[in-house]
Predict the 3D structure of the following.
Amino acid sequence: MQIENEKIAVIGAGSWGTALSLVLADNNHEVRLWGHNRDQINELNTTHTNKKYLPEIILPETIVGYDSLEEVLKEIKTIILAVPTKAIREVLNKMIPFVEHPLTIVHVSKGIEPDTLMRISEMIEDEMPERLLQDVVVLSGPSHAEEVSLRQPTTVTVSSKSMEAAERVQDLFINQHFRVYTNPDIIGVEVGGALKNIIALAAGITDGLGYGDNAKAALITRGLAEIARLGTKMGASPLTFSGLTGIGDLIVTSTSVHSRNWRAGNLLGKGQNLDEVLENMGMVVEGVRTTKAAYQLAEKYGVKMPITTALYNVLFNHAKPKDEVDLLMTRVKTHEMEDLANVLVEKGSE
């Protein structure tokens, strides 16, 4: 059942923030979309377009653009946080002076912070004063902004420490085009969403090298095993990785030209260096930072992550992509079921 319409601030006017604004507007909510670029906000309010990110889409007039955090947060109790992981702390700090009520923060980014090794919900809890934070909810799943903005069928998951908060956010978003499930495993939902970007980068590399579908299928399958190994060590349920925010998100991000992580990996496989790739992309590639964080997490938890290690060597140690792929293919032989069995045994013994 649809909940009462409300004013919602979407912080971040990139492709995903804009697409989610459209979903909320379709559900008759009053949407305030904040971005730091004044020209972009003027475009949103005059032509109702965001051509840099979603060039084919005309937005409803009920989506109003703001470039002032003070103005966008007036009378707001729910925000959708749609900024890159590296910008989250900075944006939250700028928001704090203007927050009038304890907020429910719905984050929709997919990453892990290097060095602190915090998931995004932990970053939010670390940065926001307790008196200003009602609940943190994550929205994640296989969802290209381009398809969501065209109202093509999409299914995602929301999760929170508070299932009441998760269900409220489910009601905010759900409609005939945008189906929303709930999942109590916030660790698994966040870890799956973040780590699949690493595998998508690697899948793009294999495509860039000219390898076929066989190689990519193997990479995705073994990548899922890596995600599950680390995720369960961090406290996630292994079942989460067989769902939308695990295998679902992994498939869509590793196989689609809409995926900026796949596109970045593809350019790496074709011989560009990381700086060239990031300059050509013109948008944040979350998988790069997440690879560093996952490499650190693997060391912390003593988890073997050969694909992550190979990608880390390509991104940060100037290794050649083909050399790292060849090393993966010549790793010591093992039994395919060992990984799944180990995950289930370790989880069952807790």
